[in-house]
Amino acid sequence: MGFFTDYPCSDARKFLLLWCCLSVLAVASLGSKTRHFKWQVEYLYWSPDGVENVVMGINGRFPGPTIRAKVGDTVSVGLTNKLQTEGVVIHWHGIRQFGTPWADGTASISQCVINPGENSVYRFKVDKAGTFFYHGHYGMQRSAGLYGSLIVDVAEGKKEPFHYDGEFSLLLSDWWHKDVHQQEVDLTSKPFRWIGEPQTLLINGRGQYNCSLAARSGNSSLSTPCTLKGSEQYAPQILHVRPNKTYRLRVASTTALASLNLAIGNHSMIVVEADGNYLQPFSTTDMDIYSGETYSVLFTTNQDPSKNYWISASVRGREPKTPQVLTILNYSPTSASKLPPSPPPVSPRWDDYDHSKSFTNKVLALMGSPKPPSNYHRRISLLNTQNTINGYTRWAINNVSLSLPTSPYLGSIKFGLNNAFDHKNPPDNFSSLYEITKPPVNPNSTYGNGVYMLDFNTTIDVILQNANALKANVSEIHPWHLHGHDFWVLGYGEGKFSTKDEAKFNLKNPPLRNTAVIFPYGWTALRFVANNPGAWAFHCHIEPHLHMGMGVVFAEGVHHVGRIPNEALACGMTGKMLMNNNRN
Ligand SMILES: O=C1O[C@H]([C@@H](O)CO)C(O)=C1O
Fold first, then answer.
1. What is the mean pLDDT of residues 255-281?
2. How large is the ipTM?
3. What are the residue boundaries of the Plastocyanin-like domain, all occurrences included (predicted)?
4. Residues 6+ apart with CB under 8 A from 456
C-alpha cells in the first residue's frame, strides 16, 4: 500500500504533502556528505609499550586513523590489503549497517575476507551520534592491533543533550608480546595453551612495559622510572586542559581480554553516553569498561591548576598480572612534565564484583529514549560454558561451539545454498537441570555453524546465562556484543535465571547498548527487535573466547537485503555460484 493511500485527500493535497516531504528530506540531508578514506593495512614494526614488536597497522600508523563523521554522512573506506599472506576485514563496531549488511566486516558472516593485494570499499551510513570504534574481525586480528576510533557527531544544527568545552578520545587496549599467530595456535592446540594475561595495557596505543611513569611520584619503588623525551611511540598521550572547563572524554575498550577500571585522580566523572546512546547522567569516581563498550564521561577541571593529575586504567575481573596504564591530565599553564604529586588512583580489588555491579546498575537510558516493546515473541536462553571437544578446549553456547563456514552466511542464506552450513536452528534453551555452579558434568560439546533464524520484525529476548568454567569455582566475565542492532538491557541477576526474574525486568528506562556483560555465575537479559535484514554475529567480545567458539549468529529478513556487491561474496559456495553467473 502506498504511503498516501491511507489518507482520503485530493490530488492537490497529495502533491503538497509530497513536496513537503521532499523538502524535509532535502533539508535533513543538507550538510551530510561522503567522507572518503583510503587505507592500507599492513604489518609494521612498532613499540606500543617500549618493546619493539610487529603490529597490524593502517597507513603506517598504530592505532589506525580516527574516522570522524556527522550523523547522516556516508563513510567510504577504500581498503588495500598489504598483508603479505593474510586476508582481512574491518568491523565498524556499533554502526548498525541499516541497508548495508554486507559492510559489517565479519569474515564468513557478512563477507569473504579481502585477499592480499586486493582493494575493497566499505560504504555505509552513520545514523546515530556517539563514540564508536572499528577493528579487524578475522581470526585474532584485533589482538594484533587492527583498530581505531570512529566518532559520529550530531548533525549540523543539532545539539548534544549536554555541554562541554573540549573533548579527548581514549581508546583502551591490551597488548601481548607473543605474536598473535602463535596465540591462535596456542588456543587451538591439544593440549590447550592459554595465552595468559597481557603484558601491557595501552591508551591510544601507548603503554609502558618496563618502566613506570609513576615511579618518581608515588610508592612504585619497585619499578624503574620511565625516561621519556615524549616523541617515542610509547610516550603517553598527554591530555592538555585549561582550568574551570568541562571536557568530554570518549572512552572505548577494544581490549582482547581485559576488563578495565578507569579513573582520573581527584576528579569525578559524569557518565552521559554508552555505545552511542545517551544515558541518565550519573556521577562516579571510577568506571568499569568491558571489551566492546564505549562511554562518554564529562569532567570539570576544578582542581588546583598548579598540579597535574593521573588518568589510570587497571584490570578488573581477572587476577591482574598487568600493571595499570597511566597518562597525565595536564592543567595549563603547568608544565606537562611535572608529575602529579600523589600516587595514581587505586582501583577497586579485581574481584570486587559488587563495585562493578553497582556501576553497571547505574547505567540507565536518558529520559525520552526509545522504550522496549513490553512483550517478546521469542526467548532464546544461551548457556555459556567452557567445554572440550575431542580434547580441545572450547567455549560453547547451549553446548554448541561456533565454527564458521567458508561461505558467508549473508550470501548463502539469500541465495538458499543449503549445503553451505547446517540449516537446523541451534537450541533455544538448555536443560533446566543444568547446575551452573559446577564444572560441566559432561564437558563434551559439539562444533556447529547453525544460525538462529529470527522472524523479521519480531521481538527477541536473550537470556545470557553464565556458569562455572572447566575448573571448579571459576566463572569469568564475558562481555557480549551484538552486530546490526542495539538491545535494551532489561536486567542482571545472580544464579540461574528463572521466569520469576521477569518481574524484575526494567521496562521503564533500560539502557540501549550493543555490548553487555555477564557477571560470574549470573545472568543478563536483553531485548531487541529483529528489524535489520542481514546475518549478524552475537558473541563474547573477548577475542580468544570468540576464537574458541563463543558466539552465535542471528539472521533476519535476509530476503529483504538488496543487491550484495559481488566482492563481498566471491569465496566458498557463493563464489562458485557467482562464477557460474547463476545469480538470482
Ligand atoms: O578461556 C580461558 O581459558 C583460561 C582458563 O580457563 C584455562 O586455562 C582462561 O582464563 C580463559 O578465560
1. 98
2. 0.98
3. 41-153, 168-333, 437-557
4. 530, 531, 533, 556, 557, 560
**Minimal-distance CA residue to ligand 1 atom 4:** 194
Tell whether the model's pLDDT for residue 16 goes beyond 70.
no
- Choose one of 188, 397, 476 to mutate for the ligand 1 pocket test, by most ligand atoms within 8 angstroms of C-beta: 476
Distance CA 315, CA 328 (A): 19
Residue with CA nearest ligand 1 atom 1: 545
Report the Cα–Cα distance between both ends of the chain, in Å, rounded.
26
Mutate-to-test residue for ligand 1 from 176, 393, 475, 548, highest number of ligand atoms within 8 A of CB: 393
Give the CATH number for residue 71.
Answer: 2.60.40.420
Looking at ligand 1, which residue's alpha carbon is closest to its atom 9? 194
For 352-391, the pLDDT digits (tens) are 999 999 999 999 999 999 999 999 999 999 999 999 999 9
- Evaluate whether 167 touches 247 at the Cβ level (below 8 Å): yes
Q: Which of 129, 159, 189 is the last residue of a domain?
A: 159
Looking from the CA of residue 386, the nearest atom of ligand 1 is 1
Q: What is the CA radius of gyration of the chain?
A: 24
CB 515 within 8 A of CB 486: no
pTM of the predicted model as reported, rounded to 2 decimal places = 0.94
Question: What does the pLDDT read at residue 30?
Answer: 55
Task: Report the distance separating Cα 499 and Cα 153, nearest Å.
Answer: 41
Domain range for 268 is 166-369
Atom number in ligand 1 closest to CA 469: 6
Whether residue 514 sits in one domain with residue 440 = yes
Pairing relationship of beta strands 551-556 and 452-454 according to DSSP bridges: parallel
Confidence category of residue 219, pLDDT binned at 50, 70, 90:
low
Q: In total, how many domains does the chain have?
A: 3
- Ligand 1 closest atom vs CA 476: 12
The per-residue pLDDT for 217 is 74
How far apart (Å, rounded) are the C-alpha atoms in residues 30 and 85? 43
Give CA–CA dist 342/265, Å, rounded: 9
Binning pLDDT at 50, 70 and 90, where does residue 306 land?
Answer: very high
Final residue of a structural domain among 159, 193, 215: 159
Q: What is the distance in A from the centroid of ligand 1 to the CA of 193? A: 9
- Same domain assignment for residues 110 and 64: yes
Render pLDDT for 151-178 as a digit per residue (tens, 0 to 9). Answer: 999 999 999 999 999 999 999 999 999 9
Q: For the chain, what percent of residues have pLDDT higher than 70? A: 93
Provide mean pLDDT across the span 330-342.
96
Q: Is 480's pLDDT higher than 50?
A: yes
In the structure, which protein residues have their CB atom closer than 6 angstroms to any atom of ligand 1? Answer: 194, 386, 469, 476, 545
CA–centroid distance, 470 to ligand 1, in Å, is 9
